[in-house]
């Protein structure tokens, strides 16, 4: 395992001791706050276009949130595991235990409140985070940065060939359509339609095959984290990170011409686009916050960042609990508690339904900020 006294690894400077990067916490917090915002509109029928996912090919700002988080997972691994000797007993057990915990938390969200094993969705956001964390942790412990770069290249090219060259059984040709591509076929065979994302019916946006390029997204984070922990001066780190981010973004846009950017399929062009933009975002945060010591307005996002998994899990669970509580409105309609609060306090204040929906989402984020800020001030950090 890498330590501050480790030899040079494939041309990189030795890894330095791993102080906590405030910029990484802030970038993680900004990503999680955005995730909560887009996942909790006041009214799903009224959403501003940038806060919705692209229907299939293409992308919106919302489509960048999840890959940003997986990128951050990769960066964080280098700071968390970089303090540990790879030969120390129990490291792998801790990694597996944490991955299993994340996966089970995701399954619990899918089970709740019906707990019907016959129709429960098996994949999910936390499940994918768990698998990416497990794979990237092993890569960090067992491979060098050069090897990780070759693995990333192999994943992106191999996934492209799988989806565009390999004929889909029962269809007879390779394609990128929602229900007939190779990834969808594997989901139907392995998971069966009973255990996939219900709106999609016969495939899952966090399905089996598309987890492979998602690991590629985490691997980009691994490479960036090791670069940030190298012994080079801060200005050089930022300059090269900006350059790499621009090149990756451009490569993703070029590849989009023959392998379309698509979040549901997690296409290779999407990996490069999102990874490049994530590099640019983290480089900017690192330069402003850790190098220039700019702190104004940063701590609210840090509060989200240090308890990221906790707030994501609870922000998914609490609305489901609220949906089980039913109340009668003055007009006689029976609604759940979440709908009751939204229609009683948010909707009357806005003439435009789409603005009311956004206000509802922002209110939910602000409530969580109050809770997380109190936890941050009390130094309460719940680690999964």
From TrEMBL:
InterPro entries: HGSNAT_cat (IPR012429). Keywords: Membrane, Transmembrane, Transmembrane helix. The chain crosses the membrane at residues 64-83, 95-113, 125-142, 149-168, 207-228, 240-258, 270-289, 301-322, 354-376. Residues 20-164 form the Heparan-alpha-glucosaminide N-acetyltransferase catalytic domain. Pfam families: HGSNAT_cat (PF07786). PANTHER family: LD22376P. This is DUF1624 domain-containing protein. It comes from Spirosoma sordidisoli. The lineage of its organism: Bacteria, Pseudomonadati, Bacteroidota, Cytophagia, Cytophagales.
